[in-house]
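Throughout our pipeline, every protein is held as a single compact record rather than as scattered files. Such a record has a labelled line for the sequence and another for the backbone structure tokens. This encoding replaces a full spatial description with a residue-level series of whole-number codes. For reference, a complete record is included directly beneath this paragraph.
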Amino acid sequence: MSQDAIKDTTMMDDFKAHIETQLADAVNSAEIAFGELTLNARRAEILNVLTFLRDDPICRFTQLTDIAGVDYPARERRFEVVYHLLSMEHNARIRVKITTDEATAVNSCAPVFPNADWYEREAFDMYGVAFDNHPDLRRILTDYGFEGYPLRKDFPLSGFVEVRYDEVRKAVVYEPVNLPQEYRSFDFLNPWEGGKYELPGDEKAEAE
């Protein structure tokens, strides 16, 4: 192991010990994997956790680089909201996870990291995760009147409606998805294994 790798591992261990000591019950668990520290935090404490990670002189995770949603339909709390933070001072990253369900909103962290505004709107648009006290919680990627949440595992691949321009009405119209039967005959064979394709030069290999 290189000296840099040893240094990074030691730094992550120090972060882990410090955070667990300072945040106590606000964090359910902390794990180090692939050189990054992942915290599983309590949903109600997310603002306290993020504020501590930003302002603590030892941590200094001052940049929120992303907020991602993850869907596990079999779980009672099917959604994970994952916050990715960066410390430019330490050249280190940390991941904070919380869980929620379809009916329970998460506190918006826009007061802590203003750039969370659009990240949270994307999680709301794609997964239906609501954020309390968000300054402008509305869809950001899908069209007006869109039904459902496209990145949920139970959302149909074809969607619920299709959009087309109607020449008669001279307007964009939304209609239920209608898939012809021949379109439904999907062939899931791997194109590299399923087909028998003869490429130029193959006959030479067989002859040899």
In short: The mean pLDDT is 87. The CA atoms of residues 105 and 195 lie 49 Å apart. The chain has one domain: 3-207. The longest strand covers residues 63-71.
